Amino acid sequence: MAYAPVLPGFLAIALMVLWAAEDGGYDAGTWYWGALVLLIATALTAVWLGPQIRLSRGAKRAIALFALYVAWSYLSISWAGAPGGALDGSNRALLYLLVFTLFAILPWNAHTALLGLLAFALGVGTIAAVLLFRLAGADHVKALVIEGRLAAPTGYFNSSVALFMIGSLVSTSLSVRRELPALLRGLLIALGCACLQLAVIGQSRGWLFTLPLVLVIAVLLSRNRFRFAVAAVIPAVATVVPIHRLLGVFVGRTPVALNHAAERAGKAALLLCVAALVLGTAVAWAEQRVPPPRLSARGRRTLGASLVALAFALGIAGAFVATHGDPVGFVKRQWNGFSQPETGGASSHFDTVGSGRYDFWRVALDAVIAYPVGGLGQDNFADYYITRRRSNEEPAWPHSLELRLLACTGLVGFGLFVAFLVFALIESVRGVRFPDGLGPAPCAVALLPLVDWLLHGSVDWFWEMPALSGPALGFLGMAVALGRPAPPAATGDAEGDQDPVESQPRRFPPRRALVAIGGVALVAAAVVLSFPYLSVQEVAVASALGSRNPRAALSDFALAARLNPLSPDPGRLGGTLALENGLYAEAEQRYQQAIDREPGGWYAWFGEGLAASALGDEATAAHALRVAAQIEKQQPAIREALTRVGTRHPMKPVTALREITLEPGTS
Question: What's the pTM?
Answer without folding.
Answer: 0.91
